[in-house]
UniProtKB/TrEMBL annotation:
Residues 400-423 are annotated as: Disordered. This is DNA polymerase kappa. InterPro entries: DNA/RNA_pol_sf, DNA_polymerase-Y, DNApol_IV, Rev_trsase/Diguanyl_cyclase, UmuC. GO terms for cellular component: nucleus. Residues 80-261 form the UmuC domain. It comes from the Eukaryota. GO terms for molecular function: DNA-directed DNA polymerase activity.
C-alpha cells in the first residue's frame, strides 16, 4: 500500500504487514504476488540492459544534443490552473447525506474500496483495499456503494465552472480539470494567479460544497503537481522562475510523474531515482533504457518543458476520452442473470455515446476471474482504425484516429440517429452498425467463459471521434444473445 494525502500519521509498514496477514491464502494475495513477480522480471531485464549503456563521448554528446533540443521547445509564456478534487466520491456521498459528515467514510464494497475521505485515511484506510480489512482498521468506517451516475452529474457542474475560466479546458477524469488561464489573466491584469486560484476554488465550494486542491504553474504537469502540495482544500502557485521550478522538482517524488505507468515508476525507483530531478542526473542510463515515448515525457518533465494538449484534442478531452462501464458478477447465479447484466452494461455505454455525441472506433472488453486475473480483449470497430494498444498497466496507449471534432462526412441532408454515418476506407458505417458490432463482440467474448468463472466484466469504448451534429437518443435497435 502506498502513501496518500491524509496518511501522514500512519505507519505504512505496519498497515502493509496487517494487510498481508489478512489476505494470506486468498486470490487477492495471489494477484499481488503475480504482479510483483512480473514487475521484478521486467526490472531484472532492465538492469541487464543497463550493462550495455555505451561509454563513449559520442553517445553522451548524442544524449546531450537530444536534451538540448527538448529545452529549445520550452514555452513558459502560458499559465495553467489545475483542479484536483479532495476525496471526490466520498465527499459527494457526504454532500448528499449530511448525517455522515465528520465520520470516516469510504466508497466501494466489502471486496474493494475505490476511495476514502481524509478522516478515514488517518486510520490507514485508502483505495484498492478490501472493505473487510478497512473495517478492521477503522470499525466506525461508513462504506457507501459507488454511484457513478451521481459522480458524473456533479462533475458536469464542475466542468461548467472550468469553462468559465477556459472554454477549452481539459478534464480527463471526473475529479480533475486543467485550464489555460493565460488569456483571462491578460484580460484582467489586476487579478493575480493566486487570486484566480482562490476564485475557482470558492466557486466550486459555493456550487457543490466540495473542496479541492488548486495548483497554478507555467505547464499542465507543474500545475497538477502544485495542486497536490497543500491538499485538502489548499492551493499552491509556482512562479515562472527556472530556479524555483528546479527546486520544486528536486523535492517532488518520482511517483508523482503521470503518463509512464506504475510499472515504470517502480523501475525508476529500483534504479535509485527518488525525485523528478534525478531523471536528468541519470540521463545517459535512461536514454538507453526507455522507449522513446516514455523517454520524451520523462525528460520534458525533468527539465520543466511544458507538454501542452494539442488544440484539436480539447473538444474530445473536454467531453470524454473513454467510455468505461464495469460490473461485479459475484451475485450472478445463472446464465439469464448474466445476460441481463451484460445488456444493462451495454445499454449504459450506448446511452453515454448518444449523450456525448461521439463515435467509438475502438473496443476493449475486460474480463476478471476469481483469481483476479485480468484479460483485455481489444478490437477495432472500423477497418481503417488500429486496435487499441494497452501498456503493462492496462492503460490505452494509442489514439489511432484524429480526435478533432467532426461533422459526419456525407451527412447532407442531416438525418438524426442511426443514419449518422462515419466514412472509412471501406464503407460508410452508421451508428446502428457500430452499436450492433459492439454488442456482437461483447456477447462473443462474454459467452466464451462460463458465467460462474467471471468475477467482473467491463466494456470500454475508446478512440472516440466527436460528432458535431445532434444524435437521437431514441435510436431503436434489438439485442440478440
Amino acid at each position: 500500500m502506498e502513501f496518500k494525502a491524509g496518511m501522514e500519521s500512519v505507519d505504512l509498514n505496519e498497515i502493509n504487514m496487517l494487510l498481508e496477514q489478512f489476505t494470506e491464502g486468498t486470490h487477492f494475495q495471489e494477484k499481488i504476488i503475480r504482479d510483483e513477480l512480473k514487475t521484478q522480471q521486467i526490472i531484472s531485464e532492465s538492469l541487464e540492459k543497463l550493462k550495455e549503456v555505451p561509454d563513449t563521448d559520442e553517445y553522451r554528446e548524442k544524449v546531450d544534443k537530444y536534451l538540448e533540443q527538448l529545452v529549445e521547445s520550452k514555452d513558459l509564456t502560458r499559465t495553467f490552473l489545475y483542479i484536483d478534487m479532495d476525496a471526490y466520491y466520498a465527499l459527494v456521498e457526504e454532500m448528499d447525506d449530511p448525517s455522515i459528515r465528520g465520520l470516516p467514510v469510504a466508497v466501494g464494497s466489502m471486496d474493494m474500496l475505490v476511495t476514502s475521505n481524509y478522516l478515514s485515511r488517518k486510520y490507514g484506510v485508502r483505495s484498492r483495499m478490501p472493505g473487510m480489512f478497512a473495517l478492521s482498521l477503522c470499525p466506525t468506517l461508513v462504506i457507501k456503494p459507488s454511484r457513478m451516475d451521481r459522480y458524473r452529474e456533479v462533475a458536469d457542474t464542475l466542468r461548467e465552472i472550468y469553462s468559465e475560466f477556459d472554454p477549452d479546458f481539459v478534464s480527463k477524469s471526473l475529479d480533475e480539470g486543467c485550464m489555460d488561464i493565460t488569456k483571462v489573466l491578460q484580460n484582467n491584469p489586476h487579478v493575480s494567479p493566486l487570486e484566480m486560484a482562490r476564485l475557482c476554488q470558492s466557486k466550486i465550494f459555493e456550487r457543490t460544497t466540495l473542496t479541492c486542491g488548486v495548483g497554478v504553474a507555467p505547464s499542465p504537469l507543474l500545475a497538477k503537481l502544485c495542486s497536490e502540495v497543500n491538499k485538502p482544500n489548499g492551493y499552491f502557485v509556482l512562479d515562472k522562475d527556472e530556479t524555483k521550478m528546479k527546486e520544486f522538482l528536486a523535492r517532488t517524488s518520482i511517483k508523482k510523474v503521470p503518463g509512464i505507468g506504475k510499472l515504470r515508476q517502480q523501475l525508476l525507483e529500483s534504479l535509485g531515482l527518488d525525485t523528478i530531478e534525478d531523471i536528468y542526473d541519470n540521463r545517459y542510463e535512461l536514454y538507453h533504457l526507455l522507449p522513446t515515448t516514455y523517454m520524451d515525457i520523462l525528460f520534458k518533465h525533468a527539465q520543466s518543458v511544458p507538454i501542452f494538449p494539442e488544440p484539436s484534442s480539447f473538444f474530445r478531452l473536454k467531453k470524454r476520452n473513454m467510455i468505461s462501464k464495469e460490473k461485479n458478477c459475484k451475485e450472478i447465479y445463472d446464465e439469464k442473470e448474466m445476460d441481463d447484466l451484460m445488456k444493462d452494461l451495454y445499454m449504459s455505454a450506448i446511452s453515454t455515446v448518444l449523450k456525448e455525441n461521439v463515435f467509438p472506433t475502438g473496443l476493449i472488453i475486460k474480463m476478471v476471474d476469481f483469481k483476479f486475473k485480468v484479460t483485455n480483449h481489444t478490437f477495432s470497430l472500423t477497418k481503417s482504425a488500429k486496435e487499441p494498444v494497452l501498456d503493462e498497466d492496462g492503460q490505452v496507449l494509442n489514439d489511432s484516429l484524429t480526435a478533432s471534432p467532426m461533422s459526419s462526412p456525407g451527412s447532407s441532408p442531416k438525418v438524426k440517429g442511426s443514419r449518422s454515418p462515419i466514412r472509412t476506407k471501406d464503407k460508410t458505417l452508421t451508428l446502428k452498425d457500430n452499436f450492433n458490432l459492439i454488442w456482437e463482440l461483447f456477447v462473443k467474448v462474454g459467452k466464451s467463459v462460463p458465467f460462474d468463472n467471471i468475477r467482473c466484466i467491463g466494456l470500454k469504448l475508446v478512440n472516440l471521434v466527436a460528432i458535431k451534429e445532434e444524435l437521437d437518443p431514441s435510436i431503436n435497435f434489438s439485442l440478440q444473445s
